[in-house]
C-alpha cells in the first residue's frame, strides 16, 4: 500500500531540493489552470476513476526517488499511488490534492544594491501571490501578507528581526488578507492606504507618508486605478512595491466592483498612476503583488528593473484613450468568489471559512 504526504512536507522537500518526482494525474484542462512547478503530468484521472490504470500503465518514473501523486482533492491520487506502490515504487499521495497545495509557499531573497536593507519575497506558489518581508537594522515590515501569519513571524524570528509594521497596498480581491491576523500575532502596527472600505481600526497612510524601518524608509505613493485606494511603496532608492497596479509584464485590472463606465474611469486613473511610476528612477526594482504563473522553488525573486518595465510600458502609455481601450478590451474573467473575499477583507477576519475553498483557482488580477 502507498502512503500519503501532506502539502507542507512536500513544500519542505521541494524547498530543500530533495529528489522527488511529483506526478500530476489530473485532466489536461485542470493541469492548464495551474500546477506544481517541476511536476510531470499524465492524464489518468478519468481512467483511474473507472478502475483502470489508463496511461499510468506504461508511464515511467525515475526509480531512485519517491513519487508523489497529485489530483484535485487527494482521492484519485491515492489510487494512482497504490498502483505505483504495486510496481515496487516508493509512492505517496498528496493529501488534500491541489486544494491543500493552494497554501504552499516558498521564498526568494531580492538582490539589492543597498546593504542596509534586506527584502525577502514570500511567494504563494500556486496562486502566484507575492508578499514581502523587509528588514533593516533588526526591524522589519511585511507588505501584502497572503500566507499564514506564522510564516512571516517564524522567518523574522529566524533572522532576529522584529516585525514593527504590516502594510497593504490595497484591499485584495483574490486572496484573504493575512495582514490583520499578522499584526495581532506580532503586535505590529497595521498600516493601510487611507480609505473608507475596511471596518476595523488601522493607521491610515496618505500620499507621500514615510515609514521608518530600521535605517530604511518606505514612502507611500498613491497609485489608484486597480482600486481607488491602491498605493505603492518606494523603499529607499532601490525598490518599489507596486501591489496590483503594475506587474513585471502587465498592469492591474480596473474593473472589479465597477460597471463599464466606472471601469473606464478607473482605467484613466490607472494611466495617471502608471505614468507617475514610470518616471521613477530606472534602477528601481519593481516588486509586484502577483506573478502570472505558479512560482518555482528556484530562489529567484519575481522582479524587474523599472528600466525593463518602462521598455514595454512606454508604448502602453503613449496615448490615454488607446490605453483605456486596450485595458478594457483585455479583461480576464473575474476571480472566483471575489465579492465574498472582498467582503471578508473589508471585515478583516474570516472565521469559519476555509481559505482554500474561497481562494481556489488561478490569479486573475492582471491585464497583459
Ligand atoms: Fe488586487
Report on the structure:
This protein is of the alpha/beta class. It contains twelve helices and 20 strands. The chain has helices at 7-16, 28-33, 45-49, 76-86, 97-101, 149-159, 179-186, 260-278, 306-316, 320-329, 338-347, 355-358, and strands spanning 3-5, 21-24, 40-41, 67-70, 91-94, 105-110, 118-124, 129-136, 139-143, 162-167, 189-193, 203-205, 210-213, 216-222, 231-235, 239-243, 251-252, 285-288, 304-305, 366-367. It has a seven-stranded mixed β-sheet with strand order 6-7-8-9-10-11-12, covered by helices on one side. The longest helix has 19 residues, at 260-278. It is globular and about 65 Å long.
Order of adjacent strands in the largest pleated sheet: 6-7-8-9-10-11-12
Mean of pLDDT: 93
Quantity of strands, as a count: 20
- Which residues sit in consecutive blocks of at least 5 with pLDDT less than 50? none
What is the strand content? 15-25%
Cα shape: globular
Count of helical segments?
12
Provide the structure class: alpha/beta
Give helix % range.
25-40%
Give every kind of bound small molecule, once each.
Answer: fe (ii) ion
Give me the Rg, rounded. Answer: 21 Å
Largest sheet features: 7 strands, mixed
Q: Termini, distance in Å? A: 46 Å
